[in-house]
Design a protein that fits this description.
heterodimer, A: about 400 residues, alpha+beta, Dihydrodipicolinate Reductase, domain 2, 4-stranded mixed sheet, about 25% helix, about 25% strand, globular, B: about 300 residues, mainly alpha, 2 strands, elongated, ribosome biogenesis (chain A), RNA3'_term_phos_cyc_type_2 (chain A), 18S rRNA biogenesis protein (chain A), nucleus (chain A), RPTC_insert (chain A)
């Protein structure tokens, strides 16, 4: 694709902010981008390890992408190729791409890779089946603000159903890992299976948030006593049961993955580092709108499980109070899919606090730069505080699925 | 920022009603009176179009007053009784509140719920259906399962013994006596016994030969008769006891380095007529005998 068309002039951006959304937009629209001044003024200039690792992942799931870095890593030129998914012969073995996240990327949770990959997956030519592993693969939520892999499965993936993308989607958490202590590795393992590719996602009209009718959750602990799960559950239910009696939090206890080490204190050559516990809560309303909350123990410990449970419940209540039909974590996914939809006006009601975030505003600007139409805003009217965002799709959709 | 997109805002019912509500003379300021006014408007409109509505007596208020009266009655009764009540010393007693969180009130659907939620797939919003039909089936299961198994077993046995039963002079459904022993023996053989219990191990050779021959002849006769009558019989069993017609002689064990043909005895190799014939390939067997003896060896026994 890139060869027979004349080289397009790349769109230019500056700074390291919103790198993944820009790269995803570039891949979906097929426009090359040039990002300059990536951390050019800091003492540690250029892309971080997790960012380069993400570009590596993009390279793995596409065919014909060209990536150029400058010597210092402060400038990046990306010419996207076709999203092929885990096609045989292009890095995949047995239909699965095994993507390693090295120990240097342990600041971010695995959801940082998962969410953009999920956005790309419906527009892939073939099936998407990627397995993340390695010492930087953290399945729990992190201090950097990444959600846990459980929340991705229970709160983000169900949203694709609104766009008529619902078959053959799985997120298997093969090995759990919490945030590791100090300089140790995590070693989690997560597999994303996304086998429903569409030509164009359906136009979304989501205006009525409804009332919260049930709350579900997963409390997980890695290599710590299971009583932590029970305490988190108890504390969270103590807060939430008053509002929604239909509250169930399921418990999952697992051992920490073994990490190879050369430390002399571990003569077996293996150690367990990613130890901790956390809670992922999901509230669902009568109209199928989802709010989620996520909290895990800090890597250094020192916070009792009861506090984690209680804070997570409060976080969920805060998310619900923000209102809207899409929460902040899921909003980029939903709006990106709306922008990639058919040439029709899709509408979604968002809470004011959700929409007023820097990330959302930058996404709106970026999608305009990439050739999308501007978003329309209006008050939801009535007694609601929400704002209805209207997005006209680009009508390009999946290039790989185009019927000739 | 941008012009408002989407459809025109729909005129809601509330907005339609607002002017009429303000125009109507509102007697009270509370919400209750407003609602009553609204109802009155609706009633007037309804009565204008259809016939007047029957006037309903206001029941709730009457009930309220009655309750109050009862309370007063009870109070009066209390006042009349000379019981002074509990002494005030009890007010200082420690109040014990037992907090009993009912956490594990698990419904039967909880396991299915857990399966749906904790599987690797994104959970669906629809409630998992609880099928009562399957549960009722399960309660009925163990009894019928057992009887079914028994019946099945009996039928299998009957099929297995059918030829023994039919052979007896008085056919019955259960094998008795010799037939029972034979049936047990057959069952054992089907389960993997090496041989029948009824075969005699030691007996004179001539007698054995005759037995085998007799059996073979009988079988051949049966087959011939069946063939004449056009009956298709079971396939011929070719076992090592000479029962099969085209039975092949097994190759004898020979010593290492010994010649593969003839008998070597006392330093001389004795070749029988058959051996010579197999080597030279004479007497009408033509081109077939040109090879070494190996291909013909099987035919020695048969011819």
């Amino acid at each position: 694709m890139a060869l027979d068309t004349p080289l397009q002039q790349p769109l230019s951006f500056t700074g390291h902010h919103h790198l993944t959304t820009r790269l995803v937009l570039a891949t979906l629209t097929g426009r090359p981008i040039r990002i300059t001044q990536i951390r050019s003024t800091t003492t540690n200039p250029g892309l971080t390890r997790s960012e380069t690792n993400f570009i590596r992942l993009l390279d793995a799931v596409t065919n014909g992408s060209q990536i150029q870095f400058s010597m210092t890593g402060t400038t990046l030129v990306y010419r996207p190729g076709l999203i092929t998914g885990s096609a045989e012969g292009l890095g995949a073995s047995g239909g699965v791409i095994r993507h390693e996240i090295p120990a240097e990327c342990r600041k971010r949770g695995v959801s940082w890779w998962l969410l953009p990959l999920c956005m790309l997956a419906p527009f892939s030519k073939g099936n998407m089946n990627v397995q993340f592993w390695g010492e930087g693969c953290i399945t729990s939520s992190t201090l950097a603000g990444d959600i846990s892999a459980d929340t991705v499965r229970t709160a983000i993936l169900p949203l694709y159903k609104h766009f008529a993308i619902e078959r053959g989607i799985e997120l298997r958490i093969l090995k759990r890992s919490a945030q590791p202590v100090g300089g140790k590795g995590a070693g989690g393992e997560v597999q994303l299976v996304f086998n429903h590719q569409v030509r164009l996602p359906k136009t979304l009209h989501l205006l009525n948030p409804g009332r919260v009718k049930k709350i579900r959750g997963v409390s997980y602990c890695v290599e710590v006593p299971k009583s932590n799960n029970e305490r988190m559950t108890f504390a969270a239910r103590g807060v939430l049961n008053k509002f929604v009696p239909d509250t169930y939090i399921f418990s999952d206890a697992s051992a920490a993955p073994l990490i190879p080490t050369t430390a002399r204190s571990h003569p077996s050559g293996k150690m367990k580092a990613a130890v901790g516990f956390g809670l992922s809560l999901v509230a669902e309303t009568s109209t199928g709108v989802i709010y989620s909350a996520d909290l895990s123990s800090p890597p250094d410990g020192g916070v009792p499980a009861d506090d984690i449970g209680k804070q997570c419940a409060y976080q969920l209540l805060e998310k619900i109070s923000q209102g809207g039909c899409v929460e902040g974590v899921a909003a980029p996914t939903v709006l990106m899919l709306m922008a990639m939809g058919s040439e029709d006006v899709g509408r979604v009601a968002l809470g004011r606090d959700v929409l007023a975030s820097e990330e959302m505003i930058q996404l709106a600007r970026d999608s305009k730069v990439f050739g999308g139409s501007a978003w329309g805003f209006r008050e939801a009217g009535g007694d609601k505080e929400d704002i209805v965002v209207s997005v006209v799709g680009r009508g390009v959709g999946n290039v790989g699925r185009k019927v000739a | 920022m941008a012009p408002t997109l989407g459809k025109r805002k729909r005129v809601t019912r509330e907005e339609l009603e607002r002017p009429s509500r303000s125009a109507s003379p509102s007697s009270g300021s509370g919400e209750d009176s407003g609602a009553e006014d609204l109802q009155a408007i609706f009633q007037r409109a309804f009565e204008a179009k259809f016939k007047p509505l029957p006037i309903e007596p206001k029941k709730p208020k009457i009930e309220e007053t009655r309750i109050e009266e009862e309370d007063e009655d009870s109070e009066q009764a209390e006042a009349e009784s000379d019981w002074s009540g509990i002494s005030s010393a009890d007010d200082d007693a420690i109040e014990v509140i037992e907090y009993n969180p009912t956490l594990s009130t698990y419904s039967p659907s909880e396991t299915t719920e857990k399966k749906v939620f904790m599987s690797s797939k994104p959970p669906t919003s629809t409630q998992p259906r609880i099928s009562t039909a399957t549960t009722t089936k399960k309660t009925a299961d163990p009894d019928t399962e057992l009887t079914n198994l028994k019946n099945d077993h009996a039928l299998q046995k009957l099929l297995r013994d059918s030829h023994l039963l039919s052979a007896s002079p008085t056919p019955t459904l259960t094998a008795t006596g010799v037939a029972r022993h034979k049936s047990t023996d057959l069952h054992l053989q089907s389960l993997g016994a090496k041989g029948s219990v009824f075969t005699q191990k030691k007996m004179p050779m001539a007698q054995r030969k005759h037995m085998v021959q007799k059996a073979r002849l009988g079988e051949e006769k049966r087959r011939a008769l069946a063939k004449e009558a056009g009956i298709v019989l079971e396939r011929e069993q070719r076992d090592g006891n000479g029962n099969g017609k085209a039975e092949r002689e097994k190759r004898r064990e020979r010593g290492v380095g010994a010649p593969s043909v003839g008998r070597f005895r006392g330093g001389t190799l004795m070749l029988s007529r058959g051996d010579v014939r197999s080597i030279t390939g004479g007497r009408g067997r033509g081109g077939n005998g040109k090879g070494k003896g190996k291909g013909m060896k099987g035919k020695r026994g048969g011819g």
